Amino acid sequence: MAMDLNTLAHWVSTTPTLFQGEGVVAARTPFLPNVPILKEEYRGNPRLGFLYQHLCSLLFTLNPTYSAVSEEIQLNEAGSTLGSLDFVIKNKRSQRYEHWEVAVKFYLLHQGLWYGPNAQDRLDLKLEHMLNHQLPLSQSAQFSDTYPLWRDISRHLLMQGRLYVNPFHDEPVPSECLGYQLNPSQITGFWCYQSQSHQIDETLFLLEKPQWISGKNEHSARYMASKKPEFVHCQSDSGKFWFIVPDSWPQL
Fold it and tell me: Pfam families from the entry (predicted)?
């Protein structure tokens, strides 16, 4: 499908993060809310994570507060890769370098935990990996030795996306994850099992991966329930986002 980078970039620049508060986990995006019209086309990897990182790269570059944007910085030791940093940028106001890890994620609440569509992915596991593996890369001796110019660097995690609850199950919604406060404004999605989907009282339209961010358009196909197990992401006429999952989920 053709991607409207302007719509996607506007979503990234203006949508609140999954968390609120202060500290290494960003409570707001570092981007300008008003994005100039983008004329380029995206020809990279179609997976949503790669597209999101490309959008973040564009938005960092367009923000005059930042300069010297570097991305996908590899960190190696004895011929093996320790990991890679998403972004290192220079904040011209503070005159300091910043290490940013970025992710866009969609999680469904089930029995007190937030699962991704692929149930091996969970919000608590992702956050723990980011905090205890990805961000510490820029504090390592290998990083300081390889990039001495970036030795005095701050660390930041940007997580955007949407959190989904099942309105047909009575389950309390957690207010935090690993001690970090969730942003209630992002708990706006809904999900249900296929056997519950007849209870949805609106027409749904199927979303392709980039539309998980921005929502449906005039070309989106109408969702028709299937008897075969399926995992679909839809948006209703009123704008509500819905995941419909097989009855066996999360044990697929």
Answer: DUF1853 (PF08907)
SS3 106: strand
CB 123 within 8 A of CB 180: no
- Which 8-state DSSP code applies to residue 214? H
Model pLDDT for residues 226-250, shown as the tens digit of each residue: 889 899 999 999 999 999 999 999 9
In angstroms, the CA 130 to CA 78 distance is: 23
- Other C-beta atoms closer than 10 Å to the C-beta of 81 total 9
Report the alpha-carbon angle 28-165-192, nearest 5.
140
Total residues belonging to the chain: 252
Q: What is the reported pTM?
A: 0.94
| Alpha-carbon span 237 to 252, nearest angstrom | 30
Contacts of 191 by beta carbon, 8 Å cutoff, 6+ apart? 108, 164, 165, 166, 242, 243, 244, 245
Q: Residue 12 and residue 145: Cα distance in Å, rounded?
A: 34
CA dihedral angle for residue 111, residue 202, residue 244, residue 196, rounded to 10 degrees? 60
Distance CA 158, CA 136 (A): 15
**Domains of the chain by residue range:** 5-245
What DSSP element (H or E) covers 56?
Answer: helix 48-62
